[in-house]
Design brief:
The complex is a heterodimer of chains A (259) and B (205).
Chain A: E1 5-13, E2 16-21, E3 24-28, H1 32-41, E4 46-51, H2 59-70, E5 77-80, H3 86-94, E6 99-102, H4 104-108, H5 111-120, E7 125-132, E8 145-148, E9 153-158, H6 159-169, E10 173-178, H7 190-199, E11 204-207, H8 213-221, E12 227-230, H9 241-250
Parallel strand pairs in A: 1-4, 1-12, 4-5, 5-6, 6-7, 7-10, 10-11, 11-12
Antiparallel strand pairs in A: 1-2, 2-3, 7-8, 8-9
Chain B: E1 2-6, H1 14-22, E2 26-30, H2 35-38, E3 43-45, H3 55-59, H4 62-72, E4 76-79, H5 81-84, E5 89-90, E6 105-108, E7 118-123, E8 125-126, E9 141-146, E10 148-149, E11 156-162, E12 164-172, E13 175-178, H6 186-198
The chains are: A alpha/beta (259), B alpha/beta (205).
Chain lengths: 259, 205
């Protein structure tokens, strides 16, 4: 039976894992390669590494980080942040990523999704969507908007429609982050996740708001997510993917255990 | 153990090479030239992406070279699309023939409420006489990402359930295939690759 995936996410800045709320007050949380290996050892089903600054000058540092992180990592490894062209993606794959995550560059030029998919296969393209509900909209789920620049800039596109377009262009998975929930540790946006998951035929990874085990149970059941991203819940040894999955198994969620 | 990995320009080889090297294999990558296949001690055909990409194997003459190597008894492992290529073809690219080592065809998952592609960790029902999957216990998981699959036949070495039962591994004599990605399947995947590297043509069935 297919299992629900728990994905550990490392935010990286200048070659170091960092942790902060809404990208401010960053705290050093270690070396990416060491942290990725630890998460894999502790039961994470996949690793995502996001370059949260993604400056042009930082590309060489990022590729070096990806190379070091991938070296002894034998679970799926996704890299995102600053991938603007198919050539950027090719370099990240060559360094050892299995998938790339594209966000604002795909919104600026949706053909980027087609281009990467054609060269590397749909399974290698994750389209990341930063979503925010409009509290004044008639239907805040249906009318939820896609944002870029860390949730600061609206694009005028509806989340569900953009997810569908991404699928049609050959995305293999959708990584949906609720900007409303992100950093709150008050739970995922299950309504929005379910709306996206039900309108596409590809897997949806839920992100933003994880604080407790029950939040994960909820996003798999009510949110119909295929996978969930966890960042801060694992940092500084708060919890491991294995202990999270053991709790999920007790709650009846099918997960990869032992792991 | 020396391994010849075939690069047919169908995506990313890095993970496969890394896993084989991690296990101590001496890895040689070949693309257009058939000479490395003619002298290969073992062959791995990886694959992520579209079945149509296997056309490269015909255009370059690699397909007959691989067929001859298999006939010589060289151990062969196909991964994902590399496994599907061992069959007669796939409905993903109907005009592109496979190797035809196994006579059946691969097909897309049936329409259902489940998502396609099948992405994630799923379990294996391993046939007890499988050499490739020796030591893989019930309840161990491997990582899949695919939309097309091979049917269950007498050559099937493992069955996985998703929408329907499909062949997640196949083996006959020196020819092995896995639909999942052993290079991305943690300790279980490395164990399977180690079995392949350690197999020296003994115990054919």
């Amino acid at each position: 039976m297919i299992t629900k995936r728990i994905i550990a996410c490392l935010d990286v800045h200048g070659g170091r894992v960092v942790k902060g709320v809404q990208f401010v007050d960053l705290i050093d949380a270690g070396d990416p390669a060491t942290q990725a290996a630890r998460h894999a050892r502790e039961g994470a089903d996949e690793i995502v590494l996001l370059d949260i600054t993604a400056t042009h000058e930082g590309r060489a540092t990022l590729l070096d980080t990806v190379r070091r992180t991938a070296l002894d990592l034998f679970v799926p490894f996704t890299v995102g942040g600053g991938i603007r062209t198919a050539n950027d993606a090719a370099q990240v794959f060559e360094a050892g990523a299995d998938k790339v995550s594209v966000n604002s560059a795909a919104l600026a030029d949706p053909k980027l999704i087609d281009a990467i998919g054609r060269s590397f296969g749909a399974q290698a393209v994750v389209v990341a969507i930063d979503a925010r509900r409009d509290p004044d909209a008639a239907d805040s789920v249906r009318d939820a908007q896609v944002f870029v620049q860390g949730g600061r800039k609206p694009t005028g596109r509806r989340v569900v429609e953009w997810a569908r377009e991404a699928e049609q262009r050959g995305a293999g998975e959708i990584l949906l982050t609720s900007m409303d929930s992100d950093g709150t540790r008050a739970g995922f946006d299950c309504e929005l996740t379910a709306a996206v998951s039900e309108s596409v035929g590809i897997p949806v990874i839920a992100s933003g708001g994880a604080g407790t085990v029950a939040h994960f149970t909820d996003v798999f059941a009510r949110g119909k997510a295929d996978a969930a991203l966890a960042a801060s819940i694992f940092h500084f040894g708060v919890s491991s993917a294995r202990s999270l999955k053991e709790e999920l198994a007790k709650a009846g969620v099918s997960v990869r255990l032992p792991c | 153990m020396r391994v010849t990995v075939i690069d047919y320009k169908a995506g990313n080889l890095t993970s496969v090479l890394k896993a084989l090297r991690h296990l101590g294999a001496e890895v040689e990558v070949t693309d257009a030239g058939v000479a490395p296949v003619e002298s290969a001690e073992s062959i791995v055909l990886p694959g992520v992406g579209h079945f149509a990409a296997t056309q490269y194997l015909d255009v370059t003459g690699l397909a007959p070279a691989i067929r001859a190597a298999i006939a010589r008894g060289v151990p062969f492992l196909g991964i994902c699309v590399g496994m599907q290529w061992l069959y007669a073809g796939s409905t993903e690219a109907p005009i592109q023939p496979g190797l035809g080592h196994f006579p059946e065809k691969c097909a897309r998952f049936s329409e259902s409420h489940e998502k396609v592609p099948h992405v994630g960790w799923n379990s294996l029902e391993v046939k007890s006489n499988s050499r490739l999957l020796a030591g893989v216990e019930p309840g161990e998981f491997v990582y899949f990402t695919h939309s097309y699959k091979a049917p269950v036949t007498t050559d099937t070495a493992a069955i996985t359930q998703y929408i329907e039962s499909f062949a997640s591994a196949v083996e006959r004599a020196n020819v092995f295939g896995v639909q999942f990605h052993p290079e991305k399947s943690g300790a279980t995947g490395l164990k399977i690759l180690r079995n392949f590297l350690a197999w020296e043509g003994k115990g054919t069935r």
